[in-house]
Amino acid sequence: MADSPMDAKSVAATLRELSAVMHGAEDLDMALRHIADIAAAMPGRPMTGVTLRQDGRVQTVASSAAHVRVFDEIQYSGGQGPCLDAMATGEPVVATDLATETRWSGYPARMLAHGVRSVHSEPLRAEGVWLGALNLYSRRPGALVHEARRAARVTAEHIGLLLDAALRSARQLELATQLREALGTRAIIDQALGIIMGEHHWTAHDAFDLLRQISQEQNRKVREVSSDLIRSVSGQPPESLHFDDPP
Fold first, then answer.
1. Which residue, 36, 132, 142, is CA-closest to 83?
2. d(Cα 21, Cα 30) in Å, to the nearest integer?
3. Engineering a disulfide at 123: which of 16, 17, 42, 86 sits with its beta carbon 3.0 to 4.6 angstroms away?
4. Which residue has the higher pLDDT, 159 or 34?
């Protein structure tokens, strides 16, 4: 029975609907796996994988089948292939038939040994940076036709939107954490300032100068000096402000 692959319009509609749900998802890995599965239903029924550059190295973060990671690793280990070229140039890279392909040195032969005949790599862009690729593999030459490439482009755009949302969320979480730490530190220093001001009848400015002087002499943070002062006077650890995470 012949395949009845999803056409490009159906892929686009499905991805738009899924993206609306996934933008609010906390699990980015699961969201990417869902997209990889959907992409596998596009014209040509390709095997799909999502590659991202993280901490200076590239890795497969989602795939429609376990052996896709093996295909991706062939590029990573050899340092060449459609995926890496797409990430470097920001342009899609197509190999219609690896049996006649002359690019990438030994890469085509290694892929042919795994039964892969055609490859399409669509670059992924998030926040203005090319940081990954959507990789489509087929065991048939010329299987990734125009409709499949259009669907790959639409899929890549949705992955980019998802990554944008994830990066924004990560930054917001980092800023919230930094703010909580800063406010907690401020509360401890204020407690120490109150002790010094009460004992010496000094201004807040003079009290802080003393804390800073001790901090520099002992090569320790002002917060640490303040904590020790509070503990020495009260016999208890300093009280810091606590902020609940936003719902």
1. 132
2. 12
3. 86
4. 159
Q: What is the pLDDT of residues 176-223, one digit of tens each?
A: 666 677 767 878 888 888 888 888 888 888 888 888 888 888 898 888
Within 10 Å of residue 160's Cβ, how many Cβ atoms? 19
Q: List 51's β-bridge partners, or say none.
A: 60, 133
Q: How far is CA 120 from CA 58, 89, 233, 235, 243, in A?
A: 17, 14, 69, 67, 48
Report helix angle 28-39 to 146-200, nearest 10.
170
**Which tokens belong to 55?**
């901490």
Residues 186, 180: Cα–Cα separation, whole Å: 10
Neighbours of 89 (CB within 10 A): 11
Q: What angle do the packed helices 204-218 and 146-200 form, to 10 degrees?
A: 110
Locate 143 and state its tokens: 């299987």
Written as six digits, the tokens of 45 are 């029924």
pTM: 0.60
Q: Is the alpha carbon torsion for 165, 121, 34, 177 positive or negative?
A: negative
Round to whole Å and give the CA distance between 133 and 124: 5
